[in-house]
Amino acid sequence: MRTYKHLTMTDRLRIEKWLKMGMKPREVADKLRVHVSTIYRELKRGETGGLDRNLRKAYNPVLAQQRVQENFKRRGKSAVNS
């Protein structure tokens, strides 16, 4: 039986830290024990308009968490403060 879990704010902060350390999305997924597509969706969710030093779109974990909570509210679910 498969089990699914939502990423927490702690997970999002870890993703940000590991990406800044130069880890690839596959490595981040392995460390968090989630599918790599979860990481790519998360990066899209937390994408900011600005670019980082390597001319990539930057990841903002706070923005990602806000978007998740907005989606929960829109669906009529209570927002999880993780």
Written description of the protein model:
This protein has 82 residues and is mainly alpha-helical. 54% of the residues lie in helices and 10% in strands. It has helices at 9-20, 25-32, 36-45, 61-74, and strands spanning 47-51, 57-59. Strands 1-2 form a two-stranded antiparallel ribbon. A hairpin with a 5-residue loop joins strand 1 and strand 2. The longest helix has 14 residues, at 61-74. The radius of gyration is 13 Å and the shape is globular. The two termini are 24 Å apart. The model has no long low-confidence stretch (mean pLDDT 85).
List the defining traits of the structure above.
82 residues; mainly alpha; two-stranded antiparallel sheet; 4 helices
Short overview:
With 82 residues, this protein is mainly alpha-helical. Helix content is 54%, strand content 10%. β1 (47-51) and β2 (57-59) form a beta hairpin.
Distance between the termini: 24 Å
How many β-strand stretches?
A: 2
> In DSSP terms, counting alpha (H) and pi (I) runs of 4 or more, how many helices?
4
User: Major beta sheet, specifics?
Assistant: 2 strands, antiparallel
Identify the overall geometry. Answer: globular
User: What class would the helix/strand composition place it in?
Assistant: mainly alpha
Range of strand content: 5-15%
Helix-strand layout with pairing:
Blueprint: H1 9-20, H2 25-32, H3 36-45, E1 47-51, E2 57-59, H4 61-74
